Automatic annotation (TrEMBL):
Matching Pfam families: A_deaminase
Site keyed Important for catalytic activity: positions: 234
GO molecular function terms noted in the UniProt entry: adenosine deaminase activity; zinc ion binding
Stored InterPro entries: A_deaminase (IPR028893), A_deaminase_dom (IPR001365), Ado/ade_deaminase (IPR006330), Metal_Hydrolase (IPR032466)
Catalytic activity reported: adenosine + H2O + H(+) = inosine + NH4(+); 2'-deoxyadenosine + H2O + H(+) = 2'-deoxyinosine + NH4(+)
Residues annotated to bind Zn(2+): 17, 19, 210, 302
Coiled coil: none
Top EC category: hydrolase
GO biological process, one term: hypoxanthine salvage
Domain of life of the native organism: Bacteria
Identification of the protein by name: Adenosine deaminase
PANTHER family the record matches: ADENOSINE DEAMINASE
Protein source organism: Nocardioides soli
Length: 366
């Protein structure tokens, strides 16, 4: 049975891949830009027309809708610019939690790059503390309906990954659950940050790597086999190692087989991939085949502002494109919860006590 849009919204959802600086409310950007004197982009229209949350939101979506990861990433200049003080970071983090809880998200790992928020003198420590303060406020405001953890990202074209990895480990018992690298993929392979990944492995810490989004199999191979990534950010290009024959039979190459055999989670972000050109459309997105082949697929938002999306919108788009039912959405959700950087007993409790009973109750409605 096809769920209704309202059921998808009420269904518990788990989000592993969402950027803090890609999810601001447009109105908040306008207010924070006024506070810090940041010049927002010319969004077009009448020269004298005031900038509105709606026109700014549209500008982000259109500018990001470029077919190129590099151009997509340029839009972050305007969000990062208004996130340079403790109060601004706390506000953005609090609103992020409120928005996710309202969307039915019960567990979220939110990532951002601390090194991008030290432009007006904050220390890396102060950045992480300000974000954690916002997350704590957001969780309290939603009566604990959501559990949230930070992932600290290092920018792959910069050279601060070891420092950020050490920062993440220092905060491991205070709200930081993992580490990541992000930014333009072509020209910046994961092995550029091998020392940071080796350090994290020695610390028994968790990390994911953006790989196989704008660049193909060599990036995925390095992320897993050289760097030891626990999960893949996107990983959508693993499809290049899968052959579908005319008779419908499917052949996995050695890397694709390894990813599936080892149950390596794929943090798929369908709408983001359509915007950056990694997929033609939702209906043609490799998630359909990868799910059929039982890869460990999860569904994510990446950047809610740039893609004008939410977990409900991503899930609903998959329902429309592939005819998924509540059991499929539950499968994605349990996959994500199993893949979270949270201790095993806490993951299990969320699955058994929360996610499964809620999906069973939703199925009863139909
Ligand atoms: O999808 C993405 N691929 C690579 N890098 C990304 C993506 N979305 C956001 N980023 C970058 C831009 C942000 O400023 C940074 C930290 O969140 O991560
Ligand atoms: Zn991302």
């Amino acid at each position: 049975m096809t769920p209704t849009h309202d059921q998808v919204r009420r269904a518990p959802k788990v989000l592993l891949h969402d950027h803090l600086d890609g999810g601001l409310r447009p109105q908040t950007i306008i207010e924070l830009a006024a506070d810090c004197g940041h010049q927002l982009p010319d969004v077009g229209g009448e020269p004298t027309a005031p900038l509105t949350a709606e026109s700014l939101g549209r500008w982000f979506a259109e500018a990001a809708d470029s077919g190129s990861l590099v151009r997509y990433l340029e839009t972050f200049d305007h969000t990062v610019a208004v996130m340079q003080t403790g109060p601004a970071l706390t506000r953005v983090a609090r609103e992020c939690v409120e928005d996710l809880a309202a969307d039915g998200v019960v567990y979220a790992e939110i990532r951002y790059a601390p090194e991008q928020h030290v432009g007006t003198g904050l220390t890396l420590e102060e950045v992480v503390a300000a974000v954690q303060e916002g997350f704590d406020q957001g969780v309290a405001a939603t009566d604990g309906r959501i559990v949230v953890r930070q992932l600290l990202t290092a920018m792959r074209h910069q050279a601060r990954s070891m420092e950020i990895a050490q920062l993440a480990v220092a905060w491991r018992d205070r709200g930081v659950a993992g580490f990541d690298i992000a930014g333009a993929e072509a020209g910046y392979p994961p092995t550029r940050h091998l020392d940071a990944f080796e350090y994290l492995q020695r610390e028994n810490f968790h990390f994911t790597i953006h790989a196989g989004e704008a660049f193909g199999l060599p990036s995925i191979w390095q992320a897993i086999q050289w760097c030891g990534a626990d999960r893949l950010g996107h990983g959508v290009r693993i499809i290049d190692d899968i052959t579908v024959h005319d008779d419908g039979s499917v052949e996995l190459g050695r890397l694709a087989a390894y990813v599936r055999d080892k149950r390596i989670p794929l943090e798929m972000c369908p709408w983001s991939n359509v915007q950056t050109g990694a997929a033609e459309s939702i209906a043609e997105h490799p998630i359909g085949l990868l799910k059929k082949l039982r890869f460990r697929v999860t569904v994510n938002t990446d950047n809610r502002l740039m893609s004008q999306t939410s977990m409900t919108h991503e899930m609903w788009s998959l329902v429309e494109a592939f005819g998924y039912g509540l059991r499929d959405l539950e499968w994605f959700t349990v996959n994500a919860m199993k893949s979270a950087f949270l201790p095993f007993d806490e993951r299990l409790a969320l699955i058994q006590d929360h996610i499964k009973p809620a999906y069973a109750a939703l199925r009863e409605e139909t």
